[in-house]
Amino acid sequence: MEAGIYKGLSSVNQDASALDRTRLPRHIAIIVDGNGRWAAQRGLPRVVGHREGVNVVRDIVRVAGELGLDVLTLFTFSTENWRRPKTEVSALMRLLIATIRSEIEEINRNNVKIMVIGRWDELPEAARREVAYAIAQTSKNTGLRLILALNYGGRREIVEAAKRLAQDIVDGKQHLAAVDETLFASYLDTAGLPDPDLLIRTSGEMRISNFLLYQLAYTEICVMPVLWPDFRREHFYAAIQDYQTRERRFGRTSAQAQVAVSVR
Ligand code: IPE
Ligand code: MG
């Protein structure tokens, strides 16, 4: 299986039938990466890669729904992405708006609920309006929760959670002695969501890049060499298959972990 992930897909079973439906990850998070390189390899402007990337997002959201996943989180725009050339940032914002407009109908038909993490209140007005519309339009849906990380940075999320919690303590709404991991997590943008079981990063970079720093504590990581515009559902299935071969021990010994799995 590992060979499948790291040396291409030829040696793995490329369809969903190979997946153990009883052990699907509940939450998959993806660091979408490689759009720019994909375009550069073809001598095209970076934005063409982003456009192609949207087509892949559409298909992977469909697949996630078909598989019955609970949560799919996509790292769409980071707090650091503002450092890119202005033209690329505005192209990304326009693409976000256009994508919401063109996809909202199918998203709704598929019962997908759109949620956002990150400081999307700082997005340009037009993008903010469109995002608010997407959230409102899908708020009653009960299927896949599609989490878009927009203007998201893990450290900033943690610092802001700490500040809000501190303020609540100062205001007497919380007690310092009662602060634990569960309470702290309820102050994060991801409050109410399960932690990711599986993190996929495309384009081969071995970095977390300030994504979900708190929530990834025990997440299985699958880095794949494929550039995002070339990512297909077969890669998605392969990553899930790889995940299903992992033994999640959560700090326990292997023997203990196997008991824990069998009694679950
Ligand atoms: C990911 O692709 C898309 C976004 C973060 C918006 P990149 O734009 O990071 O592509 P590379 O890494 O330059 O190839
Ligand atoms: Mg990149």
Give the structural class. alpha/beta
Q: For the record, what CATH class applies? A: Alpha Beta
According to CATH, the fold-level topology is Undecaprenyl pyrophosphate synthetase
How many helical elements? Answer: 9
Portion of residues within helices = 40-55%
**Which overall shape is indicated by the principal axes computed on the Cα atoms?**
globular
Across the major sheet, the strand order is 3-4-2-1-5-6
CATH second-level architecture: 3-Layer(aba) Sandwich
pLDDT averaged residue by residue:
94
The distinct ligands, each listed once, are:
3-methylbut-3-enyl trihydrogen diphosphate, magnesium ion
Largest sheet features = 6 strands, parallel
Low-confidence stretches: 1-7
Helix-strand string: HEHHEHEHEHHEEHH
Could you give me the name of the CATH homologous superfamily? Decaprenyl diphosphate synthase-like
CA-to-CA gap between the ends? 25 Å
Integer-rounded radius of gyration: 19 Å
Provide the β-strand percentage band: 5-15%
Domain module tally: 1
